[in-house]
Amino acid sequence: MKISIVVPAFNEERLLGQSLVQMKSAAGVFVRQGWEAELIVCDNNSTDGTAEIARAAGALVVFEPVNQIARARNRGAAAATGDWLIFVDADSYPSAGLFEEVVEQIQSGRCLAGGTTVRMDEKHWVAEFITRLWNYSSRMGSWLAGSFIFVEAATFRELGGFNDELFAAEELDLSRRLKQRSRETGKELVILHRHPLVTSARKLRLYTLWDHLKLLARVLLNRRALTRRESCTLWYDGRR
């Protein structure tokens, strides 16, 4: 068995080094299982030291010139040689316990793909509210958080990967297609919850509640907004 950890990264020099250290440490779970593991970072046209930091951490670095997270994840997956893919965001910190849960699901033979609940790395009432709402919706509806997705590589490729027409919510689109495949195959789409993924709350520091509400309103009024970079500034305006 081989696991490929894929990390999309755009101007992530501030947080990437720490997150890669955590990922490599947690990936010891796979090595102790007798499995292989590889770490792939997709430099999504960064203008800072993202690629250099990734190489220094021992990651395979690939390049995607179009600044779009769906394309970055797909480019990383194209370079992956693992039987299973784990997509982790560059500002997130998976624990060994979370990777152990992934091992359990893979070994069960019943799992097609999965995600996890999340926990912000800062205490903030808005963050608490949003994460509780998301975690409930995720578990009830089998929606995968983009910050952590594990999926059988063959299934991911058969489904065409992430939709590269979308600049946001591409993980929800993939979730929808995985749920359909789950119904067809009888395999499970799971949301892990014993070891939530710790992820950065920086968007709540960098953007106001009004910024988030405006984005939500744009999407609700016009779903095509998700296909335009200028409508998804919370991901693409370069604030880090």
Q: What is the element layout, followed by pairings?
A:
Layout: E1 2-9, H1 16-26, H2 28-32, E2 36-43, H3 50-56, E3 60-63, H4 69-79, E4 84-88, E5 92-93, H5 96-108, E6 111-120, H6 125-141, E7 148-152, H7 153-158, H8 170-185, E8 188-199, H9 202-206, H10 209-221, H11 233-236
Parallel strand pairs: 1-2, 1-4, 2-3, 6-8
Antiparallel strand pairs: 4-7, 5-8, 6-7
Structural features, described:
- This protein has helices at residues 16-26, 28-32, 50-56, 69-79, 96-108, 125-141, 153-158, 170-185, 202-206, 209-221, 233-236; strands at residues 2-9, 36-43, 60-63, 84-88, 92-93, 111-120, 148-152, 188-199.
- The mean pLDDT is 93.
- The protein has an eight-stranded mixed sheet with strand order 3-2-1-4-7-6-8-5, with helices on both faces.
- Helix 3 links the parallel strand 2 and strand 3.
- Helix content is 45%, strand content 22%.
- The protein is an alpha/beta fold and 240 residues long.
- It has eleven helices and eight strands.
- The protein has a single domain (2-204), classed as Spore Coat Polysaccharide Biosynthesis Protein SpsA, Chain A, CATH 3.90.550.10.
